[in-house]
């Protein structure tokens, strides 16, 4: 069974050396993971990680909505994309969870600018959305053909329904293992529109509670989605891994079994 973690933050996994994270991920059956940027520095970190572990760690470049500011970050982001191979823009999006977050206007400007960059460079987009469904959907409907994945998806089915006719995928974390989780979206969503992720070091699956999350734990998310959908873990693993490879246009393939 081969797995792919579509959303990890190795630069934030400060309790575990990167080589240990990679070794444990490979031992757990992972064939790759996306190192997802949240700002310019972490984009550079992700690129370095991909050079240290070629063919296994794949870098993104983007500016998280809580990292936006009135400066030249968009210009610098585009320079990074022009100078290096990155496989997605993100994570970017909208986050209205805290009153202290950057203004809605500034977040929206940055989000649209990064969607425009993705369109210009033919790159997919990893989207962060928190307490922002009403504002998010109209923006995404303005970019129906840009491939995008809403990471850590926990919004209601109505959000999915609004985006089903666009190039939008939905990625699930350890939240699906929590006792309060409503499985309706996982039950109803076609498997080919789903991906799986850890969002490590956050959102540790229930079976690993008490430890920092890491890419190796993506298998617990796979198993829970399989249980919800009455499928085998092997079926979910194969589908989500191939979807990840296709979505990010990775120059790799699932190993032959």
Could you characterize the architecture of this molecule?
With about 260 residues, the chain is α/β, with parallel strands linked by helices. It has one domain (about 5-245): TIM Barrel (Alpha-Beta Barrel). The chain is about 40% helix and about 15% strand. It contains 9 helices and 8 strands. A 5-stranded parallel β-sheet has the order 4-5-6-7-8. A 3-stranded parallel β-sheet has the order 1-2-3, with helices on both faces. About 45% of the residues are buried. The model has no long low-confidence stretch (mean pLDDT about 95).
Look at the helices and sheets and give the structural class. alpha/beta
Order of helices and strands: EHEHEHEHEHEHEHEHH
The strand order across the widest sheet is: 4-5-6-7-8
Largest sheet: 5 strands, parallel
Between the first and last Cα atoms, what is the distance in angstroms?
8 Å
**CATH level-four homologous superfamily name:** Metal-dependent hydrolases
Calculate Rg over CA atoms: 17 Å
CATH fold description:
TIM Barrel
Helix content: 25-40%
Q: Judging from the principal axes of the Cα atoms, what is the shape? A: globular
The total of helices stands at 9
């Amino acid at each position: 069974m081969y797995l792919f973690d579509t959303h990890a933050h190795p630069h934030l996994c400060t309790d575990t050396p990167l080589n240990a994270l990679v070794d444990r991920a490979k031992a757990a059956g992972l064939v790759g993971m996306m190192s997802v940027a949240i700002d310019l520095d972490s984009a550079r970190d992700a690129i370095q990680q991909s050079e240290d572990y070629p063919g296994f760690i794949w870098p993104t470049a983007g500016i998280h909505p809580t990292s936006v500011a009135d400066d030249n970050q968009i210009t610098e982001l585009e320079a990074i994309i022009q100078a290096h191979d990155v496989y997605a823009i993100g994570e970017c999006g909208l986050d209205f969870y805290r009153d202290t977050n950057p203004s809605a206007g500034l977040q929206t400007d940055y989000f649209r600018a990064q969607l425009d960059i993705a369109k210009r460079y033919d790159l997919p987009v990893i989207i962060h959305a928190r307490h922002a469904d009403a504002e998010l959907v109209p923006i995404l409907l303005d970019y129906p053909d840009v491939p995008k994945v809403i990471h850590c998806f926990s919004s209601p089915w109505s959000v999915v329904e609004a985006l089903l006719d666009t190039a939008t995928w939905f990625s699930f974390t350890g939240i699906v293992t929590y006792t309060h989780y409503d499985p309706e979206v996982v039950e109803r969503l076609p498997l080919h529109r789903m991906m799986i992720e850890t969002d490590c070091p956050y959102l540790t699956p229930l079976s690993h509670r008490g430890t920092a999350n890491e890419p190796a734990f993506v298998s617990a998310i796979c198993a829970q989605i399989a249980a919800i959908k009455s499928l085998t873990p092997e079926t979910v693993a194969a589908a989500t891994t191939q979807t990840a490879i296709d979505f990010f246009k990775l120059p790799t393939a699932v190993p032959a079994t």
